[in-house]
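Hi V.,

You were right to ask for the full record rather than a summary. Here it is.
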Amino acid sequence: MKRTVTQRILLQRITLITLAVLSCAALSTFWSTASAEGRSTPPLASMSLTDLKDNTSLQHDMLAPVAVQQFAHEHALALGSVDEQFNWKKAELSFTPLGPGTHSWLVQATFEEKLMGYMIISATDQGQLKLSEYGSGEQSPYDRELLSHALERQHLSLTMIHADGGELGLRYALPLLAYWKVERPNQEALYIDATNGDLLPSETLRQIETTSKPMVIIDTEASATSSWLVDSVHMRPTFSPMDNLLWITSKPVKLNCVQDWIQLHKELGIVYSANDRNIFYGGPLPISGYQLWHNKAQSQSVLYVALGGHTSTQRFVPLDTLLEDGQFYVANP
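Predicted structure:
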């Protein structure tokens, strides 16, 4: 009887040991496979617009959902149809999520390793994608050289920040505030305008980040875009609104339609100002051009107005966005 009990105990131990070994082997195989998949799956790669017809080349990635990638490529193709100088059609697009909450993505277009344009795509509260702004040429928000100069004015450098264990974040707050958040241990965060390098008020930016909503689910059907037709860009010389402040005492110009804008654009100088909300727009800013987009399928036209370009990044922004908080003034009334 004792021998039988002993044999049973020994058999149970052998069985438990065997199961443990098999479990370890299975886990080892799982993690090895997962690790191999992780190594074999590259981060979101830049994609040539010539490959856009094959939708399988668009991969879901942490950096940008497929819907965002598709939206960016379609708008880049539209820009390339009228702006061959910057090779939008042949550009490779890279994506960077912008916090807080990741409602927007910075899309940088490069050709032969040279920056030739950018876009910022945002998701509305309803989950619909929109082109918040764009620009052509080597100017782009979040320029590293601009950041270095801004940090120097605060007696800092990127090297110092990293050495202290600090972090640098790219942020975007609607309607139009592109900024860097510089965090350092045991120090208050710094907020720097990513279009002109100005230091932003910390209290205002902390409030923005505190009230930021979580990322919305993108409505792929509502965000699907049909072909856009883009008119040639109309440019004008830039200037500084600070050179002549008479516009501050003048009445703003009323704009009711696109034709009103085209007529206004004939003026020698136009200033955009959002008054006490200029922090969200980088204003007051000179108007340096405009470009019309047309969507025949939706019987829709969108006017993008070029802001800045004198001492700040030139940005093409929807007129409706600018009219939410600001107004236009004739520089020399």
